[in-house]
Amino acid sequence: MSRALSAAVAAALIVTVVLAANTALTGIRLGEFKLGPVLGTAADSNLVPAGAPLGQIGSDPDDPSDPWSAAAPPGGVIVQTPGPTAGPSATGTLRIPIPKNVPTGPRRVAIQAGHWKSDEAPDELRRLIPQTGAAWEGVTEVEINLDIAERVGVILNSKGIAVDILPTTIPVGYVADAFVALHADSDGVGENSGFKMAHAARRGPYEDALLNDIKDAYGAATGLDYDARHITSSMRGYYALTWSRFQHAVAPHTPAVILEMGYVSNDDDRALMLDRADLVAKSISDGIMKFLNDTPRSKIFGQDLAVPAFPSRPSRPSPTP
Fold first, then answer.
1. What would the DSSP string read from start to end of 179-233?
2. pLDDT tens digits for 111-139?
3. Handedness of CA 202, 203, 206, 212 (dihedral sign)
């Protein structure tokens, strides 16, 4: 009897250990609530917590002489160093966990009205205070951006999409199914015409699709040429897309692009954005809807991101005695 009891106790202990280990790794669900996991990202010794420096460096696109240290986004980053067989120039990767606040319910899209409420920007964006963007013949870029952003919001809402119209300040680590920043440019002389788009590096794999869907719909509807020649490093390094430099930026998983809708300084471009704003808004909405229809949320937030690490910060010379 005692031998049988001992065997039963041992079996129970094994089951308990297995269940405990499984809960630590995957969590356990009780009704509508999920507990855990206890281990995982938070237990990884290579985790760099949100806002902490990654020991890596970049440059301001507007001022290459102004270096900045990369920082981890909300949720942190797992720094994965190169293995023993890696080449001498290998820099490793950064593994970015799936956000904990992935949207549920209707698809969610953010439309940022560029330069709107720039006077309310936080200290890390103080260089944007105050800016209203381009201006020409009494028309300011921010007026155009906000007007078209609101029109896009109405169209997307009518299709069952939850929409956030965002100002200059992006909520820290903002998460959505798509993010589009609306801007308009000026060349200062009124000669350039066309629209431009860009996305940043070290983000998710679906940004090319978002960019191309909007680009195709916008070009076809407006008749504007795509002005690839004047896409700048400032566009590719747009602060709202640069999670490694700014905390007030969209989460790395969120597909995000910037669209320069035309040139305020060009008479025809300006007339398009002012007098045919509904057409402009519909073309942007059509591009976004195509992206959402082709790209389910389960793909966007289906796995951690692995992105190339930044080059290491060069060591500074020791001060001369």
1. EEEEEEE--SSS----BEEE--SSS-TTHHHHHHHHHHHHHHHH-PPB-GGG--H
2. 999 999 999 999 989 888 888 889 898 99
3. negative
State how far the Cα of 202 lies from the Cα of 309, in Å rounded to an integer.
Answer: 8
Q: Is residue 314 part of a domain?
A: no
Q: What is the DSSP string of 26-41?
A: H-EEETTEEE--SSSG
Is 319 within a domain? no
User: Is 18 in the same domain as 82?
Assistant: no
Q: Are residues 147 and 60 in the same domain?
A: no
Is the pLDDT reported for residue 273 higher than 50? yes
Q: How far apart are CA 131 and CA 281, in angstroms?
A: 23
Residue 25: pLDDT band by 50, 70, 90 thresholds? very low
Q: Residues 116, 145: contact at Cβ < 8 Å?
A: yes
Give the total number of structural domains in the chain.
Answer: 3
Averaged pLDDT score across all residues of the chain: 84
Residues 66 and 118 in one domain: no
State residue 56 phi and psi, 5-degree precision: -130, 170
Is residue 114 in some structural domain? yes
Instruction: Name the residue among 50, 107, 48, 41 with its Cα closest to residue 249.
Output: 50
Q: What is the CATH number of the domain that holds 240?
A: 3.40.630.40
Q: How far apart are CA 50 and CA 77, in angstroms?
A: 8
Q: In what order do the strands lie in the sheet with 77-80?
A: 47-48, 77-80, 93-96, 305-308
Mean pLDDT, rounded, for 6-13: 49
Residue 90's pLDDT band (cuts 50, 70, 90): low
- The vertex-172 CA angle with 170 and 178, nearest 5°, equals 60
Q: What does the alpha-carbon distance between residue 94 and residue 202 come to, in Å, rounded to a whole number? A: 9
Q: What is the pLDDT of residue 68?
A: 74
Q: What are phi and psi of 294, to 5 degrees?
A: -90, -15
Look up residue 246 and give its two tokens: 């700014």
Asked whether residue 315 is domain-assigned, the answer is no
Can you give the length of the chain in residues? 321
